[in-house]
């Protein structure tokens, strides 16, 4: 009987030891899980938040990331229809607004007069007006953003950050080339399509994109260091430093 009890106790201790070893192996697996590997990757532009929060975290972010495919497809389809209407068919905005108003007023007028012949009450036409608070909030947000842009432009024009200055000049030059190839409406439509495709693609393949971007940024920094040593460092800055000291 005592030998039987000892054998049972040995089996129980072996089970506990096996459970401890499996839990320790699970913890080791968790340490080497993809989540820890993801944290080691430097995110694009130093991003610390998910893509959804970077885009605002609200309904616009849901549309851009195709959280609701019907709404996203409807928005993109509507933008495509407007682009085809104005760009390919060369329809004008003022003409479109006037035609929509003519059609709406004609339908409401005929419907209101037809109710007298069919003995029904006329349709209720709702009052349409712009609320004050949202308009003021939008205007205030635009004012803040415009002032920040002016401050950034002033800071870059002062010559304090040569790297940022060259980056902005290159970006504006690329934008001017794109503007010479297409008009504003086409450029706006291309930007709108990119907003509906690039964030989804990046969210799906963010690890691969971030890894590639990290290598590309390292190479760009290396080339910029060479350019700085060979070209930028040879630019005389004595007059500018004397002015700052004075």
From TrEMBL:
Which cell locations does it reside in? Answer: Endoplasmic reticulum membrane
* Segments for region (Disordered): 13-35
Q: Does the keyword 4Fe-4S apply?
A: no
Stored PANTHER family: RETICULON (PTHR10994), RETICULON-LIKE PROTEIN (PTHR10994:SF193)
Protein name (database record): Reticulon-like protein
The record, for Pfam families, names: Reticulon (PF02453)
- What is this entry's stated membrane topology? Multi-pass membrane protein
Q: Does the keyword Transmembrane apply?
A: yes
Q: Which domain of life is it from?
A: Eukaryota
